[in-house]
Specification:
The chain is α+β, with helices and mostly antiparallel strands. It contains 23 helices and 11 strands. The strands form 3 sheets. It has a 6-stranded mixed β-sheet with strand order 1-5-6-7-11-8, with helices on both faces. A hairpin with a 5-residue loop joins strand 3 and strand 4. The two termini are 21 Å apart.
């Protein structure tokens, strides 16, 4: 592997022997590719010697000791660079001896930090995941100490005041450095600074623990087959069976979503929804506990009439099917689905038959390649942490330039992070000598693998989610920023979702839907035009109830961050019927069209 100080070498953009070029054109090529991708999954996982990927400094399959030693080296190198910058006399500050060393340190060490941190998300070894979490704590503690270095802040501030001529990106990067220091209180009095730093350390510690608790949660419920009535046979086959014949349903998102959407038994839906809402309650409520805005109230009020009408339709359906029982949040997905089937003539259970995972993926590849002028080429002998993981090079179609790499870790397994997300493994940047470091991304998902020759089929919501996340992959790889701090997914948080949300629109257009669909027993038969049109109309159904849920989250967030000694459980119980027009039995129980998009930017990435 390359040493952490090495600059990226010039890339050879010509296809290499043993690579699989993914370049599609027309229905025949799509069919050929779909079959090819399916075969590739089986045939390309050889025991031959794996090789490193040129220009990628993210390291895979590190042992426990290697992770901890690498973390120590990262910290030592960071301290060395920060000490050197701090030693520059105020009257001698230049871009080359102040800004450039910090920028190159961040670019070079980001993939090494990720090499330590990512194993906690993807490794099958508990010891490796534990070592990864320990390494992240050490690196974050060091990053926190760097953010408090008044000597470095003073030098950076002096450089900014000097007014040396530089480009817009360099100026923006210098401003980001100053903001990072000042957000840690270095422009405050010593008393206020100590308080800010104490609170930041506490927040970082609690945030880490909160996420770790959720990731480590192994809670499950047991149900008899008749208690899961309505769920398709292929889903039940994916569930573990215990000795007494009961099915084991976990609190992983793909299990929860399927039961809340499809199960006909209200008691089952309610029990699962309540358990899901209360997961990690004992440990995480204590973590959360350690101004209602007029704007949000106005929005909520303006939605009330339409939301009440939408809710009345759902309540009437429940009355017809279950009798005079109260309508709870656990009923939303199930009865929304009923209405969708009746009003929009869309059977989402049947629709799954048109979305085998390999075909969906090949269609997404074609759309993104055609849309952005790219060429994807699979690297069949790359080192990976699991045999299911695939690696692709991304080239500019017209120039042949290598733009970056992406890893796909698509399938569920024990110990893996439970949500779908994109993680930056290496940020694009340009070194002082002009060499470019290419970006690398990882897409993590929790899809089911093909079983016994039966293809894994995706729900339409999973198709949209996969398309959305792949939008983040392309956003990261096509970014041409010169600084790692400004590259790829490291844009301002209020913008980072915009490109992917915009690209979701392709999932509702007839011509693109046909590219990512095909009946699993005959993939030459895509979904019909009538279904495409129905999906487009369905997209805007129950819009008021959906927006009410978002307003609820916003109000809850604003209150707990604007007041002291808030009883968050009672607050949630109070807000839910007020905003969402019906009661909620427990804190955290909001199952309606739930989507979680997680991006990992630990403090270490901001300061190293």
């Amino acid at each position: 592997m390359q040493s952490e100080g090495n600059s990226e070498k010039k890339m050879n953009s010509k296809p290499k022997k043993g690579s699989n070029i993914v370049l599609l054109s027309g229905a025949a090529a799509l069919l050929t590719l779909a079959v090819s991708l399916a075969i590739t999954v089986i045939n390309n996982r050889r025991n031959s010697k794996k090789k490193d990927i040129t220009g990628c400094y993210f390291r895979v399959n590190l042992s426990v000791s290697e992770i901890l030693k690498l973390a120590d080296r990262i910290i030592a190198k960071s301290k060395e660079v920060h000490d050197a910058v701090a030693s520059v006399p105020i009257d001698k500050v230049t871009y080359k001896n102040v800004i450039s060393p910090l920028a190159e340190l961040e670019a070079q060490q980001f993939p090494l930090v990720q090499s330590c941190v990512v194993p906690k998300l993807v490794s099958t070894s508990y010891k490796v995941r534990k070592a990864s979490a320990e390494a992240e704590k050490k690196i974050d503690a060091h990053a926190s100490s760097c953010s408090k270095r008044e000597d470095v802040y003073r030098v950076v501030k002096a450089f900014a005041a000097k007014g040396e001529r530089m480009g817009a990106e360099a100026r923006c990067y210098a401003q980001c450095l100053i903001k990072d220091f000042e957000r840690n209180g270095l422009n405050l009095t010593s008393t206020k600074r100590e308080e800010v730093q104490r609170l930041r350390a506490q927040i970082d510690k609690l945030s880490f623990q909160y996420v770790q608790n959720l990731n480590d949660d192994s809670t499950y419920l047991l149900f008899l087959e008749n208690e899961l009535a309505g769920l398709p046979t292929e889903f039940l086959k994916t569930l573990e069976k215990v000795e007494n014949g009961m099915f084991k349903v976990t609190l992983k998102s793909h299990h929860v979503a399927a039961v809340l959407e499809l199960c006909k038994i209200g008691k089952t839906r309610r029990l699962l929804a309540m358990t899901y809402g209360k997961r990690c309650a004992k440990v995480n409520l204590s973590v959360l506990e350690d101004l209602v805005l007029e704007f949000l109230e106005d929005i909520s009020s303006s939605l009330s009439n339409l939301a009440n009408k939408e809710l009345a339709v759902l309540k009437e359906l429940k009355k017809q099917e279950e009798g005079e029982l109260p309508f709870g949040v656990e009923d939303l997905l199930y009865y929304v689905k009923k209405v969708e089937q009746q009003e929009f003539d869309v059977d989402f259970g049947a629709l799954k038959q048109y979305f085998p995972v390999n075909l969906v993926l090949s269609g997404i590849f074609k759309i993104f390649q055609d849309l952005f002028g790219l060429r994807f080429e699979e690297i069949v002998d790359a080192g990976v942490w699991n045999s299911d993981v695939r690696v692709f090079s991304v080239f500019d179609l017209s120039s042949g330039e290598l733009l970056g790499y992406f890893y796909l870790d698509m399938y569920t397994r024990e110990g893996k992070y439970v949500q779908t997300c994109v993680v930056a493994l290496q940020n694009g940047s340009v070194a002082l000598n002009g060499s470019r470091q290419i970006p690398v991304a990882l897409l993590i998902s929790q899809l089911q693998k093909d079983i016994g020759g039966i293809p894994s089929l995706l729900r339409f919501s999973e198709v949209v989610s996969l398309f959305h996340e792949f939008g983040h992959v392309v956003q990261h790889l096509c970014n041409r920023a010169s600084f790692a701090r400004l590259s790829g997914l490291r844009v301002d948080p209020d913008f980072v979702e915009i490109p992917a949300q915009m690209l979701e629109n392709w999932c509702y257009e007839s011509f693109s839907l046909k590219l990512i669909s095909g009946f699993h027993q005959d993939i030459t038969k895509p979904i019909k035009d009538e279904i495409c049109k129905s999906l487009k109309r369905w997209r805007y159904s129950f819009s008021a109830l959906k927006l009410k849920q978002e307003v609820l989250y916003c109000l809850f967030d604003q209150i707990i961050h604007s007041a002291e000694n808030v009883d968050i459980v009672e607050l949630f119980k109070h807000l839910h019927p007020k905003v969402s027009t019906f009661s909620c039995s427990c804190f955290g129980l909001c199952a309606f069209r739930r989507r979680i998009l997680v991006y990992f930017f630990p403090p270490s990435f901001r300061y190293l």
